[in-house]
Amino acid sequence: MKTPPATSVLARKVRRSLRRVPVWVWRLLMHSVSSSERARFNKDPITGLEYTFDVDFVGAGHRYQLLDVIAPPAAGDGATTALPVYVYFHGGGWTSGDKAALTKYCASQAEAGMVVANVNYRVAPEFHMAHVLDDANAALNWVQRNIGRFGGDPHRLVLGGDSAGGQIAALLTAATIHSELASHYKLHPAVAVQDIKGLVQHCSVVDFSVFFEKGFVLSLNFVRMLLPGRGITRPKPGRHEHLRRAARFLSPIEWLDSRHPPVLVTTSERDYFYTANLNFINRLREHSVPVDALVYDWASTNTEHTWQQNYRYPESQEVYRRLHAFVDRVAG
């Protein structure tokens, strides 16, 4: 379980049986499950913490540009030592999702002794990746200026996310390191790279090369919708080279080097992005970046994509233990 297993025959057969999911189908699915997930994942709320909901981190009154802060009760004005800060971005295929479904997940981390910022952001296809990264960067700017009031240390940040949210956290980390990537998005990083002590990735979209593989579950329109000035279209077969080039600026794996902060990766053979995550782990190791990998095999039935959100699973509890140890190690 601690090292990436070989992909099982069953896993390969299941993946080959999948058909590419269009964006509209994904959005419909996410809309249909959002209410039930919010109720299921947040059952039996964690008490004894300080909850601050719907902070407008830009000040423009946009319904997507809101974040929640969850902090231990001793992390306020009477605290003598500031706590590490975990900044989290939800998943949802860049088109959907909401921080509200992650409240208990984030509270579970705050309970372990960190201040957590749970962040919303503008979504596609109305907005593209430049808008999303701009929101994520604005959230970091707000954290840098304000998290001390909640007992957090703005110089001990750990960024994290699941699925598309993991990609956002990873790409923002990369843009903080690489001026070429930041310039591509006209981004002025809100924090210094030395303030980002670690990165947490749950079933994340960290390697866009998988979108171009035959039989991958998500269509190439997920790539197209994140690019400026491109509609969701059906181009002629074989005309994907422009997408491959553009995907470099979406794909965190393309921007790894030895300056990258330590990373915790959790995934499983049942995850859509299993191969992407294994590629990411291997590339991190090639660059001698410290990486803690928790990878479950196909036999672990509770490890479907973004299972980490469901606190009831023992596999989720193991993720939380590893996450707490990781934050203690890199930012404690």
What does this structure look like?
This protein has 332 residues and is α/β, with parallel strands linked by helices. It has a single domain, classed as Alpha/Beta hydrolase fold, catalytic domain (Rossmann fold). The protein has ten helices and eight strands. Strands 1-2-4-3-5-6-7-8 form an eight-stranded mixed beta sheet, with helices on both faces. Helix 4 packs across helix 5. The N terminus is likely disordered.
Name a few traits of the molecule.
332 residues, 8-stranded mixed β-sheet, globular, Rossmann fold, alpha/beta, disordered N terminus
What's a concise summary of this model?
This protein has 332 residues and is of the alpha/beta class.
Shape type: globular
Question: In sequence order, what are the helices and strands, one letter per element?
Answer: HHEEEHEHEHHEHHEHEH
Whole-number average pLDDT? Answer: 90
Structural class: alpha/beta
The major sheet is characterized as: 8 strands, mixed
- The radius of gyration over CA amounts to 19 Å
CATH topology: Rossmann fold
Which CATH top level class fits? Alpha Beta
Q: What is the strand tally? A: 8
CATH architecture descriptor text: 3-Layer(aba) Sandwich
Number of helices: 10
Kindly report how far apart the N and C termini lie. 26 Å
Query: Hey, roughly how much beta strand do the residues contain?
Result: 15-25%
What is the helix content? 25-40%
Main sheet: strand order: 1-2-4-3-5-6-7-8
CATH superfamily: Alpha/Beta hydrolase fold, catalytic domain
Domain count: 1
Quaternary structure annotation: single chain
Spans of at least 5 consecutive residues whose pLDDT stays below 50 are 1-6, 13-17
